[in-house]
Amino acid sequence: MAQVLVVADDLTGANATGARFARAGLSVVTLDPARVGSAGAGYDVVVANTGSRHLPAARAAELVRDAIAAVWPVRLVVKRTDTTLRGNIGAEVEAAWRAVRDRVPAEVAVRVLLAPAHPASGRATVDGVQLLDGHPLERTELALDPAAPIRTSVVADILAQQTRLPVGRVPISQVTAPGLADRLAEGDHPVVLCDALVEDHLSAIATAAAHVHEKDRTVWVAVDPGPCGALLAAALNIRCREAAGPLLAVVGSATELTRRQLERVRGTTAATCVDVDAAELTLGDGGYRAALAADLRTLLTERAFPEVVMVRTVASSGAIVEMAEGARRALPRLLARVVADSVGAAGERPPSGLYTSGGDITGAVLDALGTHALDVGGEVVPLAVHGTLVGGPLDGAPIVTKGGLVGDDDTAVECLRHLRHTARSRRRRVHAGI
């Protein structure tokens, strides 16, 4: 099941908040509340879009309760609010608080951490007042909103329109002072409203709230437009449950330039090498190939992104030239078969990306993997191509490939840096199943 449930009242906000969690490396899906219990399985963060901003308050509260019931248990519930506090704020906050309180032991305190600031979009909270680009909400064009005109920017007053939950307030002077955790833990009011001007203030609030959680067994319901909930998840050490597989580098080229490039990679990157004896691979009875495949499978299983597992031949280019023609021609195919068998055995945790060096080995590996096509994206450096694999066990994974004589001593490092960035971006995508 999910580790975090975000309940949002509109689709745009749902996806924006999901993106914050995705940036932290968590897998995220946005769903209709009716599907969160089934389709959300396997994701770290489930974002339920209730579409309740303009619904009657009672119906909005019901949708919040239903979403929490469908996904529970989770480590953190986040009630996503509009950055300008439109919608059924009070009703939905109380519904989230009661739904969580009903599901934890009686001796555990459940409290709302209300931090409505969103500094990156010009929203700040000062003295309990929500500001838009430095102006109280009712002094902006929001006062003319035909659907829901804003009459006040006092956050506690906005909540009080739909709930009688007591609200305690932590002013900016206490957010920036030592002892913030003690301040958050004070009192028994179920809602704690925190001022914040910049993201560092939200980070301090999240860190202090996590300390209170550990020390006083307080379960927090985060209520915010996105930043504070994601920061609280990080402070609570909520991480991706399954680490992504490592990057896989397969190097068939034996040129001196390639050797220098690989040594530069080993000096700058967490890389583990699988050294291949070309003669044993091509002339042996099959026992060596089996042992080599077993070693590679183990490394692909044990290592995690962004580490690199690097398969390379140890013979010099001169030694390979001196091999019998049949053995020399068979080398890329046999090495590719070892790679493909090991990748297939990785199951649900395949390599996050593929780097190849050498034209013969690149073609052999793609054939052995059953790749249908390479969707070319461009060049990292001239003649070092990046793209996406189509088909096979690495379908959709990024690839960077180059010839053995391409680039300078730092080119492999640059290629792997690009591959790592692309793989990380791919992993952080938010899936919206609406």
What can you tell me about this protein's structure?
This protein folds into 2 domains: 232 residues, Rossmann fold (3-Layer(aba) Sandwich), CATH 3.40.50.10840; 186 residues, 3-Layer(aba) Sandwich (Molybdenum Cofactor Biosythetic Enzyme, Chain A), CATH 3.40.980.20. It is of the alpha/beta class. The strands form 3 sheets. The protein has a 9-stranded parallel beta sheet, with helices on both faces. 47% of the residues are buried. A hairpin with a 2-residue loop joins strand 7 and strand 8. The longest helix has 21 residues. The chain is built from 15 helices and 19 strands. Helices cover 40% and strands 22% of the residues. Helix 7 packs across helix 8, helix 11 runs parallel beside helix 13 and helix 13 packs across helix 14.
Shape-level CATH architecture of the largest domain: 3-Layer(aba) Sandwich
The CATH topology annotation of the largest domain reads as Rossmann fold
Largest sheet: 9 strands, parallel
DSSP, total strands:
19
Report strand %: 15-25%
- Count of DSSP helices? 15
| Overall geometry | elongated
Which percent range fits the helix content? Answer: 25-40%
Question: CATH superfamily of the largest domain, called what?
Answer: Putative sugar-binding, N-terminal domain
Spans of at least 5 consecutive residues with low confidence: none
Structural class: alpha/beta
Reading off the top of the CATH hierarchy, the class of the largest domain is best stated as Alpha Beta
- Estimate the mean pLDDT confidence: 91
Arrangement of strands in the largest sheet = 9-10-5-11-4-1-3-2-19
Give the termini distance in whole angstroms: 19 Å
Q: Report the C-alpha radius of gyration, rounded.
A: 27 Å
Number of domains: 2
